[in-house]
Structure formats: structure tokens, C-alpha cells
Write a structure and sequence with these properties.
169 residues; alpha+beta; Aminopeptidase; eight-stranded mixed beta sheet; 26% helix; 29% strand; NAT_camello-type; transferase; Acyl_CoA_acyltransferase; GNAT_dom; N-acetyltransferase activity
Length: 169
């Protein structure tokens, strides 16, 4: 697993540390509010572990990366085994970026890093859920080779994520 920072302008991509818990939770809450992704709909903002993501993503076969701009966390995303599913399926999770990190290729770079990690961990498929009005995110996932599927996989609890996608690794 790669842990050294890689730069894109002033932006850096690196693995999540325990010190980042509060900052990435704030990013997720801020972006969720911006797009109306409320806790009552089962979006990530409802995750009871949101304030301690490092504890979750430091487990085997889990990883989460943050994007920093001048030392400030402005985005992140991760991958983990898909809950209640076959052991070869992982889930691309919690991809959130503040406006300062958007349009600079960091979401693509982070997703590619996550997919490479998933392959290293012997996953053969990667699943994700999102919502239809996040057009840029869907376009990114399609460009990375994710296909739309009709039925949900696993037990994510994201009841209003009506867009489901799957990619063979």
C-alpha cells in the first residue's frame, strides 16, 4: 500500500491518519450539506463511525486517503470490503471533496489508488452507490469502467442512493 504523498499542484494525496478524523468528518458533513445529503436518508453523514474513520480504515483490507491543500484536508475517499456480501467484493466509499479540490483530477487519482489497493487485497469486483444528481461523480465512475447495475449489493444502509455501479478488477 502506497503511503508516500503524491502531489498535483498544491494538492497532496496520502493515507488517512488518526489525526485526520475530525478534518475529514467536517469535509463529509460540509459537502453533504452542500448537496442536501441528509442523515435521515441514509447518506454517509449518518454513519455512526464518521468521527473515527481511522479506526475503521486501519483494519485489514480497508484503506482511506485524504487530499490536502496546503496542509488542510479538503477531500477523501476509501475502499473496504462490502458489508453483507461475497468476500471478493469491495466498496468504493466516502468520496467527498470540497470545492477547492474539485476539477483538479484528485478524485480520479484517489479512485485509481483505491482500485489498485483493492486488487492488491485480492478483491475481484468493486461496488459503489451514489445519487443521480451527482453528475460529475457518475461521469468519473463511468470513465473508470464502472457499469450501472439495477439491484443493490450488500447492506450499505444508503436507502436513497439510487445509482449503483460495479466494476470488475
Amino acid at each position: 500500500m502506497q503511503s508516500s504523498p503524491s502531489a498535483s499542484g498544491d494538492l497532496q494525496l496520502r493515507l488517512l491518519t488518526a489525526h485526520d478524523n475530525s478534518a475529514i468528518a467536517t469535509v463529509i458533513r460540509t459537502v453533504s450539506a452542500e448537496f442536501g445529503l441528509t442523515a435521515d436518508k441514509g447518506y454517509t453523514v449518518a454513519d455512526p463511525h464518521l468521527d473515527r474513520l481511522y479506526d475503521i480504515y486501519s483494519q485489514p483490507r480497508h484503506a482511506y486517503w485524504v487530499v490536502e491543500l496546503n496542509g488542510t484536508v479538503v477531500g477523501g475517499g476509501g475502499v473496504a470490503p462490502l458489508a453483507c456480501s461475497e468476500p471478493d467484493i469491495c466498496e468504493l466509499q466516502k468520496m467527498y471533496f470540497l470545492p477547492a479540490a474539485r476539477g483538479k483530477g484528485m478524485a480520479r487519482r484517489l479512485a485509481q489508488q483505491a482500485l489498485a489497493f483493492a486488487r492488491e487485497q485480492q478483491f475481484t469486483r468493486c461496488y459503489l452507490e451514489t445519487t443521480a444528481f451527482l453528475h460529475q461523480a457518475i461521469a468519473l465512475y463511468e470513465s473508470l469502467g464502472f457499469d450501472h447495475i439495477s439491484e443493490p449489493l450488500g447492506c450499505t444502509g444508503h436507502v436513497d442512493c439510487e445509482v449503483r455501479m460495479l466494476k470488475s478488477l
